[in-house]
Amino acid sequence: MLDQALRSRKDRLLNPIAERAAQFGVSPHLLTTIALSAGIAAAAVAAIFPSYIALSFGLWVMSRSCDGLDGPVARRLGRPSDIGGYSDLLGDFVVYAALPLGLAWGHPSPSAWPITAALLASFYLNAASWLYPAAILERIGAERRAVPARLDPDTERWSAEPDSSPGRDVPAKQPKESGCEQAPRRHPAQAKRTTTVAMPRGIMEGTETLVFFSLFLLFPALYPWIAALMAVLVALSAGHRWATFRSILQARPATRHDTR
């Protein structure tokens, strides 16, 4: 919910560091590896040494800092790649699963385990709520870029769908506005993004996740209560994404590529 509003501030904070790291030739894959290792180490400290709050939190900050730098460094080195984005995303999933498990292991209350199970289940639901829509948005974007707009001679309207009716052979043209060709349309979730996949917005995004996990580590005694609240918000976020994506698809004209 806050990612887009805080993106410019995040860029101002991380860009100078990423620029310096790129000048020293720091590998983005190394940063991804450090982010994953430090996150797992933070989970291990929270499980084995729950009183070492400063150490686990410091490792968490190191993990997320490297996670935020690997992408900007890769772009500055001219080496952004799909495998890099995939590795980064997979590492995030590992860290976000390991930390709640570590906190539950180190918490004295038995209630920490069922609450952790509910939290991880909400993560699973939330991932499903945006991974599939992200793939659909990518496909829609690819179709819109690949298929030129076509003038329907019957309705005299422009359509992004090719005319497949028998005997109809209307040359493809680009609609013009003020003498300029219209650029291919993109869904807002795809516009000006720097991530490997388009991530639909939701109530719980990266910023909110960082805040909740930081609270987990800074106040481990309150972990079950904070985790329960996060589980509810993540589930609500998944429902919100489902409703939003459903409205997007319902408003979009069906194509022959659409499947159930």
Our measurement of the CA-to-CA distance between the termini, rounded to an integer number of angstroms, reads 29 Å
User: Mind telling me which CATH architecture this is?
Assistant: Up-down Bundle
Radius of gyration, in Å, reads 23 Å
Shape: globular
CATH superfamily: CDP-alcohol phosphotransferase transmembrane (TM) domain
Question: Helical region count?
Answer: 7
Description:
A hairpin with a 4-residue loop joins strand 1 (150-152) and strand 2. This protein has helices spanning 3-23, 28-48, 53-76, 82-106, 112-146, 206-218, 223-251; strands spanning 150-152, 157-159, 176-177, 180-181. The strands form 2 sheets. Strands 1-2 form a two-stranded antiparallel sheet. The chain has a single domain (3-251), classed as Up-down Bundle (Four Helix Bundle (Hemerythrin (Met), subunit A)). The chain has 260 residues and is mainly alpha-helical. The chain is globular, with a radius of gyration of 23 Å.
What topology emerges from the helices and strands here?
Blueprint: H1 3-23, H2 28-48, H3 53-76, H4 82-106, H5 112-146, E1 150-152, E2 157-159, E3 176-177, E4 180-181, H6 206-218, H7 223-251
Antiparallel strand pairs: 1-2, 3-4
Helix pairs in contact: 1-3, 2-3, 2-4, 3-6, 4-5, 5-7, 6-7
